[in-house]
Specification:
homodimer, alpha+beta, Thiol Ester Dehydrase, Chain A, 21% helix, globular, EC 3.1.2.2 (chains A, B), palmitoyl-CoA hydrolase (chains A, B)
Chain lengths: 243, 243
């Protein structure tokens, strides 16, 4: 498998991570190779996107449905490790974004709470050919906003994370440029919200995506959103990393 | 102090929390009375919006600056309890949104991580007359997205929460209808982001707000956003609660 690195231009001293992109650059990694690097066959890392006792029956049964689809219908179940630092073992991010390793307990935001059922419970399935994702999301009582319901910000973060992983795997999109959410109904804590994400187009080094979050029976729409992500130029690993 | 309840129309059976508003209704509670109910002089509840050893020097010194402004310049430091269930002891939310009390450990999403410095560190100052807020936000390592930087979703949630408290206190806005964020730069974990929120207008029972998140020296803009919140009609407590 061809390994690649990222060409980045980051002014970390100014806390400025704006990339300088070459408009003529081509984006090289195929979705298949990105997915295979993202989903290691063997790893010692804990995958948090597996069923546990806190999952509600709706979440469990829909998980099983999609798991069946991974066998024949082209869907891929994405693993979810504690930190993006774990994911980049298979992915590689721009070197300017990899902070010096230390002993801190780093966690990706959507896995910040590790007590089963209390925070984020979710699993993302991705379809490389259709360039779409489905995220099964069950908010716990630590994600509360109005009493008994998920905080709007917790859904916003779940959408951003699902967009993010989809954008990277579908087209090397790495950074959120825009997130626009229209909230319709509140999600009761402990229930299932199904997020359907679709890549609408890839243009001018940007990925445009849409998302609808709704109940499993599709009778209740919780929110609709759109996201724009910036593609990141890939180069051969033999090229020098530019900072 | 006049106490009030909310008139709501919620179809919880369908998980639908769309309020049926009376277009002619007036919104009665003054900002002063809302603020005084929100900020109890004496309480046994822990206020998480107080300095701790994890706060960076920038956050500490700006906190002290705003604390001085609370004495003479009309700013109010908002307390931040573990759950909105604690805040509603002074506020009251629509009864349809108050889930039956149980022994769960409920937490407002932005206080979901209680280990100092690991998750959300923030404090919100509100100016009732100017209808604006300033949120001092320091993301910890559990809020990570790209290695070493805050997850975009964690900033989205912080903006939503600051909008939410501002909207309620400035004009009885309770529910996010729309959140639109344009991301500019990443926030390094452990550093300070200053969120300036302004109520732009109140029209047709909606509050329109803007936010800019930037470094303390204003040289780096992290993100700009707008939020629209729905006002909730208040009625005298003697009126029947309508569900």
């Amino acid at each position: 498998m061809m390994r690649r690195s990222f060409q980045v231009a980051a002014r970390l001293g100014h806390r400025c991570i704006l990339p300088r992109l070459d408009p003529a650059a081509a984006f090289g990694s195929s979705t298949d190779s990105l997915v295979s690097r993202f989903c290691p066959v063997k790893t010692d890392l804990k995958d948090y996107a597996l069923p546990n006792a806190s999952w509600c029956p709706d979440m469990l049964s829909l998980y099983q449905e999609f798991l069946e689809k991974t066998k024949s219908d082209g869907w891929v179940k994405l693993p979810s490790f504690q930190s993006n630092r774990d994911h980049i073992q298979g992915l590689k991010l721009p070197s300017g974004l990899v902070a010096a390793s230390d002993k801190s307990d780093w966690r990706i935001f959507t896995r910040c709470i590790q007590v089963e059922g209390q925070g984020y419970e979710y699993v993302i399935f991705f379809h490389p050919f259709k360039k779409k994702s489905v995220c099964l999301f069950q908010p716990g009582p630590y994600l509360e906003g109005p009493p008994g319901f998920a905080h709007g910000g917790s859904l916003a973060a779940m959408m951003d994370e699902t967009f993010s992983k989809t954008a990277y795997l579908a087209g090397e999109g790495l950074f959120t440029l825009n997130l626009n959410i229209r909230f319709k109904n509140l999600i009761p804590v402990g229930s299932l919200a199904v997020l359907n994400v679709q890549v609408e187009k890839i243009e001018d080094q940007k990925l445009y995506m849409s998302c609808i979050a709704q109940s499993r029976d599709q009778e209740t729409v919780y929110a609709k959103s759109s996201g724009v992500f910036l593609q990141w130029q890939l180069e051969e690993e033999s090229s020098p990393w530019s900072l």
